[in-house]
């Protein structure tokens, strides 16, 4: 059950603008293990008990043969809610099974939905399709913007949904591939805000915390010439430090130990940037030994191994 849903591309600088390790361009997050249960929890949090009760009420009413005029308005509501729950369950199953195209086909049928839970899943599915290598370039672009639209609507429908905030931030980061530098930088602030909000709403979501760490790492690492451009465009260009990034990667690990090979790698890389070889080695070893379930895990193993040889040579 290996699923590669690229979670995050690059927040700011365009494809190939700066050479980076494979982890940055193919950032994926497998659907296995705890990440799966996070999604499950996400879908379960929403209105399930209520639906259940209303569902019961409705069947009781029809069983007792209440008049149709009394039941009908209630019935419409019950039916709609019940159906959303069913679609979400089906959608989560398809997502877990890595059935990207089927999932997209299922959810686009409901693109006029007003349900935030359904809409953010549709946003995620659209961007997953965009990332398939067989999707033609022109379609990718359409899908990426479409995904952003859905995520935006999900947010409009429910500002308290952490997943809506998280996917809005991720989708906004995706459209950066097609935008000029000014828009990208402007979006970077918005992306940060929404990751922060997602974490505030669900402090147990390790992936949002990890992505916030990536955000910090990206801006801590920003080369001087890019910083200079950013400074010309904005009075206070987004910036961060490796210490700040480290805080998020550690926090993600605390919330959900060993949830993601890339978080281990980034802990190692951040310690390297901070010249702490001992701790860098500790985390890189863990990244290297992480059981590979996805393509990305394998790339991360390789990168961790390379980094480890790199500095054992110097010692
Ligand atoms: C919005 O999302 C939150 C968290 O998932 C949920 O508790 C709440 O019921 C949702 N509100 C609406 C109006 O759907
Ligand atoms: C970001 O830059 C501003 C000045 O440009 C500085 O005052 C601030 O400390 C920086 N923040 C971080 C996290 O480096």
From TrEMBL:
Which Gene3D superfamilies does the UniProt entry name for this protein? Answer: Tetratricopeptide repeat domain
Q: Does the keyword Repeat apply?
A: yes
Q: Which SUPFAM superfamilies match?
A: TPR-like
Which keywords label this protein? Cytoplasm, Cytoskeleton, Microtubule, Repeat, Signal, TPR repeat
Localization of this protein: Cytoplasm, Cytoskeleton, Spindle pole
Q: Give the Pfam families listed for this entry.
A: RMD1-3 (PF21033)
The source's superkingdom equals Eukaryota
* Residues making up the signal peptide according to the UniProt record: 1-19
Q: What is its main location?
A: cytoplasm
User: PANTHER family given for it?
Assistant: REGULATOR OF MICROTUBULE DYNAMICS PROTEIN (PTHR16056), REGULATOR OF MICROTUBULE DYNAMICS PROTEIN 1 (PTHR16056:SF16)
- Assembly with partners or alone: Interacts with microtubules.
* Family, per entry: Belongs to the RMDN family.
**The protein's name in its UniProt record:** Regulator of microtubule dynamics protein 1
């Amino acid at each position: 059950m290996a699923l590669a849903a690229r979670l995050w591309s690059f927040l700011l600088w365009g494809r190939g603008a700066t050479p980076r390790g494979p982890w940055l361009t193919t950032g994926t997050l497998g659907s296995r293990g705890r990440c799966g249960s996070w999604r499950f929890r996400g879908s379960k949090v929403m209105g399930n008990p209520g639906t259940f009760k209303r569902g019961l009420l409705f069947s009781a009413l029809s069983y007792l043969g209440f008049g149709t005029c009394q039941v009908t308005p209630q019935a419409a509501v019950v039916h709609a809610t019940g159906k959303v729950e069913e679609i979400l369950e089906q959608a989560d199953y398809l997502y877990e099974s890595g059935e990207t195209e089927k999932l997209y086909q299922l959810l686009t049928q409901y693109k006029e939905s007003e349900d935030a839970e359904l809409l953010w899943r549709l946003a995620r599915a659209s961007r997953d399709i965009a990332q398939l290598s067989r999707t033609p370039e022109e379609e990718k672009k359409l899908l990426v913007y479409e995904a952003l639209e859905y995520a935006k609507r999900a947010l409009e429908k429910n500002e308290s949904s952490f997943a809506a905030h998280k996917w809005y931030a991720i989708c906004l980061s995706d459209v950066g591939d097609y935008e000029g530098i000014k828009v990208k930088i402007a979006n970077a602030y918005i992306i940060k805000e929404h990751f922060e909000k997602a974490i505030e709403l669900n402090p147990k979501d390790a992936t949002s915390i990890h992505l916030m760490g990536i955000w910090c790492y990206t801006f801590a690492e920003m080369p001087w010439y890019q910083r200079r451009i950013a400074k010309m465009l904005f009075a206070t260009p987004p910036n961060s430090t490796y210490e700040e990034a480290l805080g998020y990667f550690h926090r993600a690990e605390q919330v959900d130990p060993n949830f993601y090979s890339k978080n281990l790698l980034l802990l190692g890389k951040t310690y390297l940037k901070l010249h702490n070889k001992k701790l860098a080695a500790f985390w890189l070893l863990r990244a290297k030994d992480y059981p590979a379930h996805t393509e990305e895990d394998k790339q991360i193993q390789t990168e961790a191994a390379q980094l480890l040889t790199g500095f054992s040579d110097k010692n």
